[in-house]
Amino acid sequence: MDRPVLAREIARLGITVHIPPALRTFTSGQDEVYVEAGDVAALLKALDAAFPGIRGRVVDETGRARPYVNVFVNEELVRGSLAAVRLAPGDAVHILPSVAGGSIG
Amino acid sequence: MGSVKKGSTVVLVGTKKGGFVFHSPDRRRWSVAGPYFEGMPVYHMILDPRDGRTVYAAAPNPGEVWGPALYRGRLGSTPALTKGAPRFREGSGLALSQIWHLEPGPADSPETLYAGVEPAALFRSDDRGDTWTDIEGLNYYPGRDKWTPGFGGLCAHSVLADPRDPKHLLVGISSVGTFESRDGGDSWKTENRNVRAGFLPNPYPETGQCIHHLVWDSAGDGSIFHQNHCGTYHRGPEGGAWTEVTKGLPSDFGFGIAADPLHKNTAYVTPLIGGGNRVPPKGQLAVWKTTNKGRTWKRATKGLPGPGAYMGVLREAMSADARDPVGVYLGTNTGQLYASRDEGQSWKAINMSLPPILSVNAGLAL
What we know:
The complex is a heterodimer.
Chain A: H1 3-13, E1 15-18, E2 32-35, H2 40-50, H3 54-58, E3 69-73, E4 76-77, E5 92-97
Parallel strand pairs in A: 1-5
Antiparallel strand pairs in A: 1-2, 3-4, 3-5
Chain B: E1 9-15, E2 18-24, E3 31-36, E4 44-47, E5 54-60, E6 68-74, E7 80-81, E8 98-104, E9 113-118, E10 121-125, E11 133-134, H1 136-139, E12 155-161, E13 169-174, E14 177-181, E15 189-190, E16 211-216, E17 224-228, E18 231-235, E19 243-244, E20 253-259, E21 267-272, E22 287-290, E23 298-300, E24 318-320, E25 328-331, E26 337-340, E27 348-351, E28 357-364
Antiparallel strand pairs in B: 1-2, 1-28, 2-3, 4-5, 5-6, 6-7, 8-9, 9-10, 10-11, 12-13, 13-14, 14-15, 16-17, 17-18, 18-19, 20-21, 21-22, 22-23, 24-25, 25-26, 26-27
C-alpha cells in the first residue's frame, strides 16, 4: 500500500493506540487497537469501554497519568491535562512505561 | 508455589524485589518457594489464619508502574490478581499509591479483608478482595487536609480488626496517630492520649503522633501493643489512653513489634537508635521481650548479628507463629531472615541473601 493510501486507511480506522506488552492482557494480545475520541482523556475512556480495566492502569482515580507511565501523541509526550490534548483521526498514541533508573529501591 | 504440606509452619516474606514463602515441618529445615511478583515490591503478604490456605499479597500490577494491586491464591499456587483493588471515590482528589497492610476480618466473616493504604485510608472487601468498600468515615475524615506524612509517606500501615467485635476497628496512620471506630467504620475518633510526639511544639497533641505499628496483645481482651517513633506503648482492655512502656528498652525508637500469640501480655520488639540513624544500638541486633505488658524487658542477642551490625527492621517485618514453643521471625532491611524456635531466646538465620525485607508473616498451613 502506498503512503497516501495507508494514511487514509489509518484515518478511516480512527486513532491508533499502541498497547504495551504489560497491558495486552486486556486486549487479547493485540499490540495496537483503533479508537475514536476527541482528546486523550476521552480516548482512555473509549479504550476502557472496549477493554474494561485498562484505563485504571494508565491513570489514577483523579484521571492523572500514573507516575512512570507516559502517553505520547504522534511521538510527542503528553504533559498536564489529558483532556487538553486534542486528537484527530490518523493520530497515533503510544502508552509506555518510562525508564526510572537510579532509584535506591 | 511448590508443595506446602499441611501442618507446616509458613513464613511469608515480602521484599523490595518479590515475595517468598518459607515453609518447614519442624522449623529446623526450611524450604522456600518463590520469588513471586519478581522484581516488584511486596509490601505485605499474608496467610489467612481463618483457613490456613489462602494467601493475599499487596504488590503492583504486573510491570510495576501500572498501579497498586492485590493478589490472592492458595498456598501452593501462584497468587493471581483479584478482580479489583481499592479505589477512592470520584472527585475526592485522592488516588491510591500503595497498599501497605492487609488484615483479615473476623473468623465468622471469612471473606472479609481490610486494606490499609497510602494516602492514608481504609478499605474493606467482603468477597476476598475482588470488590472494595471505601470506608468514608475515615477516608474523608474532617481535617485530613492537615495530616502530615511521615518519612514513609501518609500511610495507613496498621489495621486491627477486633476478633471479639466486628464493629471495633483501629487504624494507625503515619504521622497522624491512631484512629478507633466502634461502629464498623462509620465514625472514628482519635486515640492518642499519652502518646508522645517529641518532634512537635506540643508533645502530647490530639493528632500528629508518628505511630509505627499496632498489634493485638494475645490476652484476647482488646489489649494492644504499639511501637511508636517516640516510645513503646500498651493499652489495656478498658481501651482509652495509652501507657508508655519504653523504660527498660535501649531507645524509644523502633518499627518491628510482634505479639506472642500464646502468651498474654507478651511481645517482642527490635529497638533502633532512632532519628536519622535507624540501626541497632551499639551495632548489635537484639530482640527485646516483655512478658508483663512492657513493665520490664529482656534482651536477646544469641544468634543475631553484631557487633558491627547496622541494619534495620521495618514495621511489618516481625511476626510470631502459634506453635508451642512460639516461633518468632524477623526480617532485616538488608535481606536477612531470622527465626527463633524458643520464644525469642535464641535465633538462627533462615536466609541471608534476600532483597530488603518489607514484611514477615508467620502462620500454620491447614
